[in-house]
Amino acid sequence: MTLDKRAEGVRRLAAHVADHLKADLTLRLWDGSEVPLGPSPRGDVALAIRDPAALTRLVRKPRLSTLIEAMAQGDVAIEGGTLLDLAERAEHGRRGLLKRLDKMTIAKALLPFAFGPGKKQGSHAFSGPGDAAKYGEGRDDKALMHFHYDLSNAFYALFLCPEMVYTCAYYPTPETTLAEAQVAKLDIVCRKLRLQPGERFLDIGCGWGGLVCHAARNYGVKAHGVTLAEEQYAYAVEKVKRLGLEDRVTIELTDFRTLKAEPFDKVASVGMYEAVGLDNREGYFARIRELLRPRGAYLHHAIARPMKKDEKTFRKKRPEFEALTRYIFPGGELDHLGAEHDALERNGFEIHDVEALREHYARTCRAWTERLFANREAAIKEVGAAKTDIWITYMAGCALAFERGTVGIFQTLATKRARGPSGLPLTRVDLYR
C-alpha cells in the first residue's frame, strides 16, 4: 500500500471525526493535504502529522510517551499555536468523542499503519532511576533536580518574570501582570509568615533567590536559601551580590535534610514539596520541625491532587502523570491536601490557615506558555527544539489541569506546636492590606 493511500484513509477518518468534533482546526498530513476538523476552521492553527511513521508507532504502542516522542522529533506538531489553542477550539466536541466515532472507520484507517515502516524512536526522557522512591535507598535527588532545573538560566528567563520566580503567582486583580503577580506572591508569603526584622528565615528550594532577597530587602530578615540545582545556585549567589545583600542573605548548594544550622524563626517551602516523593513525606515534615524554634512558623506551598476513594487508588499513576515524571519532573509526586495536613499534625505542627490558589496557577501557567511560545526560536537555541516543544506542551497541559480543577494548589500556614498562644494575629486583616 502506498503512502498516498494511507493518507487517503487518514483523510476519511479525519472527515468522520470532523462531523462530531466540529473544531476550529485543520489537520495537515505528510503529503501536503489538509482536512478541516470542523465546518469552517480559520486554518491558522493546525494539528500536523509530518511523518506517517509516527502513526505506525502510535498504532503499535498507543501510549502518551509515544506521542510525546513523536512531537519531540517533529513528526507530530501543533502549528500556529499550543495545546491551549487545541483545547479551546475543540472544547465543545471533545467530550465523549471516542464513543461517538464508528470503530470500523477507525480500524480501516489505522490498520495499514500496523504493518508500515516505523523509524527508530529516540528518547528525551530522564534516564536515571526516577522510580527510586525512598530517600537514602537509591534515590538521587541531585540528579533528579539537575534534569529539570539545570537546563539553562537563559531558557527559564524566556518565560519567567524578571525575579525568576518559578512557582504559582498571586493575582490581586485580573489585570495584574505576571511580573506584578510574582512580586505579590513573594509578599503574601512574607506577610503570612509575619516576618519581622532580625528574624532568621529559611527558604527550602530557594530557586533563583527571589524570595530570600525579597524577604531581606523588604522585611529585614536574615535569610538563608538552599537548592540542589547548580545553575540556580550560581544565579542566586550572583543576585545576592548584585543587590548588596551579602550581610543578610546566604545561599547554600545542599539538601535541606543535611543542613547544619541553629533553629530558624520562620521556614518556607514554596513549590518544592512536589519533588519530595510520597514515601518521603514523614521525614520531610519531621526535618522541617527540627529546623524550627518552638512556635516558629512554616509556610507550605504545594500542588495537590484531589483525594480518591482510598490511598491505593490515589497512588495509581495515570498516563499523563507518568509522562510528566519521565520528561519533566523525574521523582516527583503530587500529594492530597488531607495527607499533607495529617503529616503536619503527626509531626508536631498546628495548622492555622489554608488558602486555595488554583485559579492563580492557571493564569500563571497560561502566561508562561504564551511567553515561551512567543520566544520559541530563542528557546531552541538554548535547549533544542525537542526540549522546547516538550516544555511548551507541559506548561499548556498544566494550565488546562488547573483551569479544569483536576489539580489544585494550596498555601498552608502552620507553627511548631507548643503550649500557650500561637503568636499569630487573631484575624487575617493584616494579610490583605
TrEMBL record:
<comment type="similarity">
    <text>Belongs to the CFA/CMAS family.</text>
</comment>
<keyword id="KW-0489">Methyltransferase</keyword>
<dbReference type="GO" id="GO:0008610">
    <property type="term" value="P:lipid biosynthetic process"/>
</dbReference>
<dbReference type="GO" id="GO:0032259">
    <property type="term" value="P:methylation"/>
</dbReference>
<dbReference type="InterPro" id="IPR050723">
    <property type="entry name" value="CFA/CMAS"/>
</dbReference>
<dbReference type="GO" id="GO:0008168">
    <property type="term" value="F:methyltransferase activity"/>
</dbReference>
<feature type="active site">
    <location>
        <position position="398"/>
    </location>
</feature>
<keyword id="KW-0443">Lipid metabolism</keyword>
<dbReference type="Pfam" id="PF02353">
    <property type="entry name" value="CMAS"/>
</dbReference>
<keyword id="KW-0949">S-adenosyl-L-methionine</keyword>
<keyword id="KW-0808">Transferase</keyword>
<dbReference type="InterPro" id="IPR029063">
    <property type="entry name" value="SAM-dependent_MTases_sf"/>
</dbReference>
<dbReference type="InterPro" id="IPR003333">
    <property type="entry name" value="CMAS"/>
</dbReference>
<protein>
    <submittedName>
        <fullName>Methyltransferase domain-containing protein</fullName>
    </submittedName>
</protein>
